[in-house]
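Late entry, evening session. Most of the bench is empty. Finally got around to the prediction I had been postponing all week. Sequence below, unchanged from the version circulated by S.P.
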Amino acid sequence: MTAESMKTRPSTDGGRTALFPGSFRPFTKGHASIVERGLALFDRVVIAVGVNLEKDPEGLHGAEAVRAIEALYAGEPRVEVIRYSGLTVEAAREAGAQFLLRGVRTVKDFEYERDMADVNRKLSGLETVLLYSLPELSAVSSSIVRELERFGADTSEFLP
């Protein structure tokens, strides 16, 4: 598939679909905020749980994350959850997405996301829509939550 054909491909349901990719280890309130705000912009949001088969050869984390996120959005028909490995633009193509949806917390995040958006646009023609985190969620990251969990801290205030 060429970048030009990717640009014009409609979503599977005729609406505007965004793919929200990530490892979601774990899926935080910050991630949930991006999905909720994305639903105001798009007809459908596909949450794509990326699996790094080198780090997780059995894909166990990905399967657990998909089940947990599916349960969270069980009542929202405009949200779909998939698991993928490989290029994000291929997952977007398979999901019928015309956009990538990403969250940005810091300047460092912005620079990384800008570079990824440029590469993804060159590979596929997909545009990336960046949403800034809400101020009260800007300090919440999956890596911080994992670190707190490792030491037995209560992380419920960071998780949906």
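Two things to note before I forget:
Residues 3-9+16-151 form a domain with the Rossmann fold fold (CATH 3.40.50.620).
Residues 1-12 have pLDDT under 50 and may be disordered.
Will write this up properly tomorrow.
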